[in-house]
Amino acid sequence: MHVAHLSLTDFRSYDTVDLGLEPGVTAFVGPNGQGKTNLVEALGYVATQSSHRVATDAPLVRHGASRAIVRSVVVRDDRRALVELEINPGRANRARLNRSPMSRPRDVIGLLRTVLFAPEDLALVKGDPSERRRFLDDLLVARAPRFAGVRADYDRVLKQRGALLRTAAQARRGSRSGRRAENDAGFAAAGAGDVLSTLEVWDAHLARQGAELLAARLELVEALRPLVAAAYASLAPGSAPASLEYRGTLSTGGDGVSPEGVSPDDVPPAPGSTAGVSTAGGQATEEQPARGPVGESANGRDAGARSVMAEHGTAGRGTTARPAAAQGTAAHKAHPAADRDTQSAAGQSAHPAVGQDAHPAAGQSVVDRGAIEQALRAALLEVRSAELERGVTLVGPHRDDLFLGLGELPARGYASHGESWSFALALRLAAYELLRADGGDPVLILDDVFAELDTQRRRRLAEFVSSAEQVLITAAVPGDVPTELAGAWFDVAEGSVTRVR
C-alpha cells in the first residue's frame, strides 16, 4: 500500500497544495511552523478521520474558510482509489470514493492504513488512560473497519445513558418532599420510575456494545504483547522487559462480578458535596470524547486503572500476569485504601468472560463475548445506586486502561524519558507489525521523531522502518533524517512544498 497523490484545499495553513508521492522514503524538511506536519496530518486524517494533534475538526480548516478538502490516491495491490473527505466544522463531514458520494464518511475508513509516530506519542506512556484507549481502538479500526461503527454506537449509547443518569441524579437529590430518595424504591416513589425502566433499556444496549468493544480490546492486547516486548528489547537492550496488561472496571468476586470504579477516590462527588478524595493523578471525572476515545472516561492514574481481568484470561500465551497488588504504584502508596482495594482483588478466580485458561491453544480465543455482556449487565446493576447518586456511568470500556510495565514497575511515573520514548515507539512498531501480518504494509509516518531520539534509538528505528513500502518523514533540519532513509526530498517553507530530489 502507498499514497500516490495528496491534494489539500483550505487544510490548516494551505489554501491549495498538490503532491505526487511514490513508494519508498519521502522526507519533508523545513523550519518549524512551515506546515510539514500539516501534510502528514492530512494523510492520518484520511486513515482515521481524526487528528493526532487536536480533538476537534475546527482547527483543520484554514482560517477564513468554511470547509477543508483532503484528496488522496491510495494504491493497493495495483488498484487505485481516490478518497475525498470534506471537513465541515459544526456540520456533517462528507466523503466520496472514486467521485461517488458515500452515505457515511466512516465507510472509507480502511482504504488507507497508516502508523504514525509523533512527539505526542509520549502521552501513550505518560498520559491519561484515554490516550491508551484511543491507541487500542484506532488499531482495532485499522485492522477491522467495522469497529468504527462499534465505537460510534458505544459512544452514542454512553452519551444517552449519561444524560439519563444526570437527569436521574437531579431528581434523586430532591424528592417531592424535599428529602433525598435513598434507594431505587424511594426514587421510583418520588415519581421517577420511568427513568429506572429506561435505564434498564440503556443498560442492555451499553452491555451489548461494550462487550463487543471490550472483547476485541482483550484479544488485541494479547496479540500485541509479544510484539511490544520484542520491539522494546531491540530499542532498549539491557532495560527491564516491557509488558502489557488490560485493566478494566470489571473484577471478580465470589459468584459474580464487582465493579472496581466505585470507591470514593474513583468517582466524582455529587454536586455540592465534598466527597471524593483527590489523588496524585486527579480524581476521576466524566469527560467528553477526546481525540478518538469513546465516551466518558476517568482521568488517568495508575490506582484508578485496577482490574483483575488482565490477571487471568488475557495474560497471554506463555505469560502469567502479575497480581494487581504487586504493581506497587505511587498512587497505591499514597492512598492505603486504594492499596487495600487492589490487594483484595489479587488471587480472585477468573471470570468466564475472559476464560479460565491463561495459556490457550494457538488460535483459540480467550474471550467469551456473551459472558462479558452478562458481566457488564451485572456490574451496572450493582453500581446502580452510585450511578444515580453521581450521574455518571461507572462501568464499561470507557473507564478502562492499558497498563504498561517495565519489569515490576509501571512505566508511567517510573520510566526515564528515554525509556518512555522506547516504549511509545515499541507500541507503534508492534501496531505496524500486526497490520503488516494482516496483509499489506501500512504507510509509515514519522513526524519529527528522529530529533527526539539519541543516536542508538535513531539508528534502530531507521533499521526497523527501512523495509516498509512507503515511509513519510518530517524533519526541521536535514541532519534529522538518517542516512539509511535516503529517498525523495521536499523543502517546505513559507506555505510552499517543493521537490528538490
UniProtKB/TrEMBL annotation:
A GO molecular function held by the record: ATP binding
KW Electron transport (keyword) present: no
Extent of Low complexity compositional bias: 317-331
Transmembrane segments: none
GO CC annotation: cytoplasm
Region (Disordered) location: 246-362
Biased composition (Polar residues): 275-286
Superkingdom of the source species: Bacteria
Xref: SUPFAM superfamilies: P-loop containing nucleoside triphosphate hydrolases
Job description of the protein: The RecF protein is involved in DNA metabolism; it is required for DNA replication and normal SOS inducibility. RecF binds preferentially to single-stranded, linear DNA. It also seems to bind ATP.
Protein name from the UniProt record: DNA replication and repair protein RecF
